[in-house]
Amino acid sequence: MPEFTVCERGSPVTSAAPARAMLRGCRAEEDGERESHAGASLSVGPVSCDAIPELVARLFREDPALVDVIVQHFVDGPSGVVLSLREDLALVEYSRLREGVTAGRVAPFVAVLPTPIARYAELQRAVQRVHAVHGPCDLEFVGVERPRFVQLRPLTAPVELDAELSSTRMQLQELDVSRWGQVGYCVDLMEQPARDDALAALWAELLPLEVAPFAGRGADSAPLSMLKLGTQFYVDLDALKACSPTHLGAFRIGLRARRFLREAERALAARDALDPRAWMRHSIRLNLVWDLFAPHVPRWCRGLFKLRESVRARLFEAVPLGTRSPDIASCRRLTDTLERHDPSLTWIRCGPADSTGQLVVFGDFEAGPRFVFAGNVDAIPDGAVLVTRELYPELAPALSRVSAVLCEGGAIGSHLAILAREQRVPMKIQVSGLLGEATR
Fold it and tell me: Which has more confidence, 159 or 191?
């Protein structure tokens, strides 16, 4: 515990003060039997020694309810709170947003103790020692790998702990990549769970190579980093941006568009047993053309869409079966972007998906009994509202006989969404919390 002195209201401030200090105002009613308000009063710092008397006087002036001000030696480093709930369970939240004192983090770094992650080992041992003496408590600390506790309060109210989300964030914090995102191909992978291992590896390897002639100088041809979180796929957004086509590259893609289409048509007509790498190259090139022309020439792109889907079908036939194991096991569906700000040790975006759903085709989603798809298309009853985790391609034959489709994932541009619009089948996608962990 850092050294501290207590300045009571009306008493002179002693001159024995640290070079840098934190000032914490304290009220008489902060800790009660049923509830704790400790930390609600104003805290200031770090401040220099010569500023302490004036600031102590200001704190007493601004808050007449203060009974004393604690002048505490300032300790630098990531600061945070440990909620020691049980001997074998503690929640850690920390940040650099404010030096030396915590003040209501919005999206902090988190950890759930105990954990095998090495940098939490000393903090974990210290928390266990404190818990053995004080029981459930709230500990403010500074420094993760060499922690110093700056305040301790007994826990006087129950703590809500989302252990799965906190554990997932903790594992994500250990990864080198700080910005993950879902792009169209990530959705494709989620809709092909039986083949996602080979498809993910091929796309991550070949996309940088195929885009390199159209990207800017210094584009990296190394395979993209991909993350599988539960059933969701993410890609390193910074690496993806670095290998994206430039404006000049887009012009060059336009010049080669017809050649790309002819090569794909010849491959389909030949019916040759092309290897998966060749089909993936055709698929990537057609997607480059699609991204360039689809927003501007929709009539021409109808044929392109059919060609692209035919190539994708051959690709799926060519790749071997194999499901990629999750890098991080999670039953919770998270937002489509995961982003952290390392300098402040905070999460910018990383939480449960909270969308109420995106409407693809308007209609009645209560007309008919709900049927949860579990892998057997033939078992889907006529007239049912189909509930599914993803818009799996094998569901296409069932569209004509269901009354509506509700999907926890999905994307507007996916094959099934396009078919639903053509056939006027009511469909809503990205409906969070629609399914538990049992399906598919």
Answer: 191
Length reported for the chain: 440
pLDDT at residue 69 is higher than 70: yes
User: Which has more confidence, 114 or 344?
Assistant: 114
Q: Quick one: which of 233, 224, 236, 232 has its CA closest to 179?
A: 236
Backbone angles phi, psi at 190, to 5 degrees: -70, -25
142 vs 330: CA distance, rounded Å = 30
Residue type, 335: T
Side chain identity at 403, as an amino acid letter?
S
Residue 97 in this model has a pLDDT that exceeds 70 = no
| Beta-sheet strand order (sheet of 148-154) | 109-113, 89-95, 79-86, 137-142, 148-154
CATH architecture of 358-429: 3-Layer(bba) Sandwich (3.50)
Residues near 242 by beta carbon (within 8 Å), at least 6 away in sequence: 215, 216, 218, 219, 220
Q: How much is the CA Rg of the chain, to the nearest whole Å?
A: 29
Among 155, 111, 109, which Cα is nearest to 134's? 155
Retrieve residue 209's tokens: 């190579």
User: Is omega for the bond preceding 326 within 30 degrees of 0, making it cis?
Assistant: no
Phi and psi dihedrals of 184, rounded to 5?
A: -55, -40
pLDDT bracket for residue 104 (50, 70, 90): very low
The DSSP code sequence of 183-242 is: -HHHHHHHT-TTTHHHHHHHHHHHHHHHHGGGB-TT---SPPPEEEETTEEEEEHHHHHH
Dihedral, CA of residue 80, residue 86, residue 88 and residue 89, to nearest 10: -40
Q: Where are the beta strands (DSSP E) in 284-389?
A: 337-341, 346-349, 358-361, 370-372, 385-388
Average pLDDT on 234-242 reads 94
Rounded mean pLDDT, 67-88 = 84
CB atoms closer than 10 angstroms to residue 341: 16
Which pTM does this prediction carry? 0.80
The confidence band for 39, taking pLDDT boundaries of 50, 70 and 90, is low
Provide the residue ranges of all domains of the chain, joining segments of one domain with +. 4-73, 80-173, 183-318, 358-429
CA distance 366 to 310: 34
Q: Give the whole-angstrom CA distance, residue 7 versus residue 53.
A: 10
By the 8 A CB rule, do 386 and 401 touch?
Answer: no
H or E element, residue 313: helix 298-318
In the structure, what pLDDT confidence band is assigned to residue 16 with cuts at 50, 70 and 90? Answer: low
Q: Given this model, what pLDDT does residue 101 score? A: 44
Residue 283 has pLDDT above 70, yes or no: yes
